[in-house]
Amino acid sequence: MTVTLEKSVEDFIATPRRLFIDGQWVEAASGKVFATPNPATGETLAQVAEADAEDVDRAVRAARRAFEGPWSRMTASQRGRIIWRIGDLIEEHAEELAQLESLDNGKPLSVARVADIPLAAELFRYMAGWATKIEGNTITLSPPFAPDAAFHAYTLREPVGVVGQIIPWNFPLLMAAWKLGPALATGNTIVLKPAEQTPLSALRLAELMAEAGLPDGVVNVLPGYGETAGAALAAHDGVNKIAFTGSTEVGKLIVHAAAGNLKKVTLELGGKSPNIVFDDADPELAIPGAANAIFFNHGQCCVAGSRLFVHESRFEQVVAGVADIARGITLGPGLHPDTQMGPLVSDEQLRRVTGYLDSGREEGARTVAGGSRYGERGYFVEPTVLVDTRPDMAVVREEIFGPVVVASPFADLDEIAAQANDTAYGLGAGIWTRDISKAHALARKIRAGTVWINCYNVFDAALPFGGYKQSGWGREMGHEVLEAYTEVKAVCAQLHT
Ligand code: NAP
Ligand code: MG
Questions:
Q1: Among this protein's residues, is 268 annotated catalytic?
Q2: 3-state secondary structure of 256
Q3: Which residue among the candidates 96, 301, 302, 476 is catalytic per the annotation?
Q4: Rounded to whole angstroms, how far apart are CA atoms 472 and 268?
Q5: Which residues neighbour 121 within 8 Å (Cβ) at sequence distance 6 or greater?
Q6: What pTM was computed for the model?
């Protein structure tokens, strides 16, 4: 028994979806389409037009016209009201969007309802408020070569221009919101490429954005493949900035592609985040917290707490507790009301994650819970806990992006800081302890963009998010993100009196 689909969702997936360029729904120039599968069954969910370079070019030109035209003529207040209205419309269509997200991505409907959709609505509302608060400064000058001269100098914060945005499949609507919200609040126009696995909610969002009053061409949505549409967008000379979320490997390709016209680049990449449980942590919080840190969204979180470190005196207790939770998680299709964990997003990810399970075993890791594919149909993987790992194993060093945690014991604070930082990544970290001094002292030692203390996976539109080291460049959300979408212009006038 699964949830009955809303009629709007049935209609949406029954019709082949097209590209959204300049406010119009159009076929791809090549006429090509691709299928987006339902990860719970492997069957085709919907047909979608497949953008490539020619469509990217058309969309970039539309975005440029909108940037120079209607969007720049609106007041900041008018833009802010439209962005706020997008948040309202997401909320009004919450159930429909949650169902689309669950169908396309595989995540439990119950999770999409309480996390993905309301967080996306809140993101637009938070950013709507910033539209009227983008300010420069006045600056006092004292040039030694003109001591008697008077100047009036100030800065303007201006939009970067046409922005290309490439997003992944793990939180399709929310990643679109993280990217679009700040770009719109600062007056940019956008060409967005959703992930090939999950294009549907971004296409529905395009309809809602038009309904909210966004002028034609301000946001263009181009489903398609990374190697074609994504690469063309990253390399396009008419694009002033590219914002990317995805693998570190593709992030490096984006940097190369962007070099042609030196467009601005921000990157939100992979992670292998440490989650650290001290001997004085409350086990009632730390054990479910450690399980949630890795198993939320099936481990398909860039910030997943995938390396669990537990003080040696508590190691067995915490690992046994996390393993019990892992074994108790109900797997099933996202639309089934009892489902606590859905399938991975694709056959490719299933093979990738089970490949890591094999490599971990071959290298000598011991499986305490899970360890295999679940069922024959769909892309399900059992929540898995591995122990007896060594720091050089692939399962410890590489981002698995599935429900797989490696657990190891530690002895003291200095040792754990070094172990936590022994990674090419630096996205997130968790600390579980009752000792506030220890918690904050360790938070300073960890080289990561987010440190959670006695919690994990807490996201807020006001909290900046991003990575140290190979986890990325720049920050999303909070007021920090506004810098990524604006240029600063210094204006200097001499006052001749
Ligand atoms: P990915 O290839 O990095 O995909 C992310 C986005 O980049 C997608 O929209 C993708 O298009 C696009 N893309 C791919 N190649 C491109 C290129 N040459 N130029 C421009 N854009 C390109 O990630 P994936 O293949 O979906 O997943 C592989 C691994 O990446 C995962 O196992 C995980 O480790 C990591 N990952 C990290 C995050 C994160 O949030 N940090 C999110 C997703 C995946 P397509 O949809 O066509 O691939
Ligand atoms: Mg890919």
A1: yes
A2: helix
A3: 302
A4: 5
A5: 87, 88, 90, 91, 94, 177
A6: 0.98
Residues 186-218 pLDDT 10s: 999 999 999 999 999 999 999 999 999 999 999
Closest ligand, as measured to the CA of 34: 1
Q: Which two tokens stand for residue 105?
A: 């991505």
Dig out the tokens for 347 from the structure.
Answer: 């056959």
Rounded to whole angstroms, the Cα distance separating 268 from 438 reads: 29
**Measured between alpha carbons, how far is 384 from 327 in angstroms, rounded to an integer?**
8
Buried b (16+ CB within 10 A) or exposed e, 182-193: bbbbbbbbbbbb
Using N-to-C axis directions, what is the helix angle for 172-185 and 76-92, rounded to 10°?
160
Contact (CB, 8 A) for 164 and 237: no
CA distance from start to end of the chain: 81
CA dist., res. 258 & res. 474, Å (int): 16
User: Is any ligand 1 atom within 6 A of the Cβ of residue 166?
Assistant: yes
User: How would DSSP label each residue in 137-157?
Assistant: -EE----TT-TT--EEEEEEE
Contact 297, 402 (CB under 8 A): no
Q: Which two tokens stand for residue 482?
A: 């506004």
Exposed, middle or buried: residue 443 (CB in 10 Å: 0-12, 13-18, 19+)? Answer: middle
Q: Domains in the chain, ordered, with CATH?
A: 7-269+472-489 (3.40.605.10), 274-459 (3.40.309.10)
The whole-number pLDDT of residue 2 equals 81
What's the average model confidence in pLDDT over 462-482? Answer: 98
Q: Is 396 in the pocket of ligand 1 (CB under 6 A)?
A: no
Give the separation between CA 480 and CA 163, rounded to whole angstroms: 17
pLDDT of residue 1: 64
pLDDT on residue 47: 98
CA 250 to ligand 1 center in whole angstroms: 6
Q: Are 292 and 303 in contact (CB under 8 A)?
A: no
d(CA 156, CA 150): 20
- The atom number, within ligand 1, closest to the CA of 345 reads 26
DSSP 8-state secondary structure symbol assigned to residue 338: T
Q: Residue of the nearest CA to atom 10 in ligand 1?
A: 226
Tell me the C-alpha distance between 425 and 270, whole Å. 7
302 catalytically annotated: yes
> Scanning the structure block, which residue is given the tokens 């600390």?
431
The half-sphere exposure of 262 on its side-chain side, counting CA atoms within 13 A, is: 0
Give the whole-angstrom CA distance, residue 273 versus residue 102.
Answer: 26
Confidence of residue 152 (pLDDT cuts 50, 70, 90): very high
Nearest to 52 by CA among 295, 251, 229, 210: 229
Q: Is the pLDDT of residue 437 over 80?
A: yes
The DSSP bridge pattern shows strands 19-21 and 24-26 to be antiparallel
